[in-house]
Amino acid sequence: MIKRFLALLLLFGIGAIFITLLLGYTPDTELNLTARYYADHTAQDLGAANIITAIIVTYRGLDTLGEVTVLFLTAAIVGLVLAHNRQHSGAGQRELPPSGELLTTGSRLLVPLILLLGVYIFINGHLTPGGGFQGGAVIASAILLILLTEPTKRFSHRLIAALESISGLFFVVIGVFGIFLAGGFLDNRILPTGTVGALFSAGAIPIIYSFVGLKVGAEFSSMLANLSETEEP
């Protein structure tokens, strides 16, 4: 009884804090100095129509590198833990009824379209909302659909790891080129920025986001593949 009372008291206290913050919230009427600079100069300086993408890939490129590194470590840890569990539990493939014809046919039709959509999202990330992380997640959803259709299907972990490693390597290499050929790490101006709004614009941003998309897609796919192999017989 005392524990429930303390929990309710804690909830009321947190609620009171948030209500106070909400009632006292005053929205900004104008952008601060830093945000105003980005809004006014990003398209002109970097050639990207999507300002958010330009900021993520260039101005805060080191932070983006840290994010993909964290995702890589997460995928690696998931793989190691699940592989350790499989060795001790002796998990293997189990007999499952075949998928229905409708599900199988639908999967065969949708998977190529999902992969195409994922590629489109990260290639056009400098023009429209989206980018490498979103496109990579869409690509991984195609792998998920395949596993839902055929749970016993196995993917080559070596191929996924190679794709993830090569994408990450080229991502870093392009970033280093920015140091020597432009203004800093992951500076997209190692290539011509072109005309704002054109497909071939924003310098190296489309290339950078393509490698980010492949890397993120490979990492998510690796986790899905490892999870699918933990089914008990």
Shape label: globular
Give the tally of β-strands.
0
Summarize the main sheet.
none
Low-confidence runs of at least 5 consecutive residues: none
N- to C-terminal distance? 44 Å
Mean model confidence by pLDDT? 86
Q: What is the succession of H and E elements?
A: HHHHHHHH
Provide the number of structural domains: 1
| Cα Rg | 23 Å
Structural class: mainly alpha
Count of separate DSSP helical elements = 8
| Strand proportion | under 5%
What proportion of the residues is helical, as a percent range? over 70%
Describe this structure in words.
- By secondary structure, the protein is mostly helical.
- Helix 3 packs across helix 4, helix 4 packs parallel to helix 8 and helix 6 runs parallel beside helix 8.
- It has one domain.
- 70% of the residues lie in helices and 0% in strands.
- It is built from eight helices and no strands.
- It is globular, with a radius of gyration of 23 Å.
